[in-house]
Amino acid sequence: MKSIFIWFKKLIAPSYCTQCQKFLNDNQFLCSSCILEIVPVVTRTLHITKTHAVPVYAIGLYQDPLRSLVLAKQRRDPIASVFLGHLLWEKTDLKHVSFDIIVPVPLHWTRYAWRWFNQADIIAQQIGKASGKPVVHLLQRVKKTDYQAKLSADKRILNVKDAFILSPEAQFYKSKTILLVDDVATTGATLDVCFKTLLGLRPSGLIGAVGARPTLFR
Length: 218
What we know:
Layout: H1 2-12, H2 32-35, E1 44-47, E2 53-61, H3 66-70, H4 79-90, E3 101-104, H5 109-115, H6 119-131, E4 139-141, H7 153-160, E5 164-166, E6 177-184, H8 189-198, E7 205-213
Parallel strand pairs: 2-7, 3-6, 6-7
Antiparallel strand pairs: 1-2, 4-5
């Protein structure tokens, strides 16, 4: 029965590549040719304090085809984020890194109410399934910020200043190695303020992972 349902679903709503529109045989978002167009990037270090430097893993450059997957959130398409999580685990060295818990960058409740999902959380859940590590919501977004993409680098820092606090359950996760996950990093401002907030837990280690980023950031 399940196989018949899958066949019928593909018949009336076949999968297609979000980049080249080529029809696909399975539930993917990029064809094999477009996946090869992803420009990989080396892991970069984000210096959040004079004594804390955090490695940030990314699938590749923030340009198509990764850009089309990231921006699918604007169409309220959560499945693209599932694929980003899969690529982040399979196409980076993240699977060789040791961490205890996974923390997604949260959305403000107003943006979540409009979108009905948090792309960072979906990516984190996919990494959780692959790694066997729990996804824990240690951060709360208490400030409604403007879209970072619309702002200059300096204004992005001010935009996210004091935007996050630790959640009430965070006290139970002190001294852990934390993997912080987001869909994209441009200047690294959001990651920076989130990492600084997580320092309140005195973590044994901090790691970052994003779907895409520019060649350089911060």
